[in-house]
Amino acid sequence: PVIAGMKGSAIENFSCVIYNIFLMNCTWQAGRDAPADTQYFLYWQKSRDEEEMECELYIQDENCRNVGCIFQNVSIGIEKAYFLVNGSSKDSLIQFYDEYIDLYKIEKLMPPSNITVNCDEIKNDCIIQWQRPQISHSSKDLCFKYEINIKYK
């Protein structure tokens, strides 16, 4: 297939992470051969049934070029989400970049909450309890692994 646009003008190093349960942050770098006036625009579609939406809150570099986006109220569905970044320039056509991403794979989990420690000096033992972290997606019965580091002072 012929990709319209100037070679080397598409964005590079696209990546997204979901954090704090419902925020998503996507970032990219301008194409190394993109003209100086190139501006990029991010669109995404959570599933095939939903509408494609443009980023509402862009992150810009010192040249006022869009190099990222912050999304609020993101929820994770079962389908891969579709991301498209296209660009515009007065001088030439800009190549687009697109990618399908499983959102659950990019979620950065919150730490466990309500951690309690009860120690019994007579028995010389401690009981440590916590609540499972909240997650953005609905697979509530996933197995979580925890690592506890205990430092004696």
Automatic annotation (TrEMBL):
It comes from Cardinalis cardinalis. GO terms for cellular component: external side of plasma membrane. Its main location: membrane. One of its GO terms (molecular function) is cytokine receptor activity. It is a single-pass type I membrane protein. This is CSF2R factor. Keywords: Glycoprotein, Membrane, Receptor, Signal, Transmembrane, Transmembrane helix. It is found in: Membrane. The keyword Cytoplasm does not apply. Residues 13-106 form the Type I cytokine receptor cytokine-binding domain. The keyword Transmembrane helix applies. It comes from the Eukaryota.
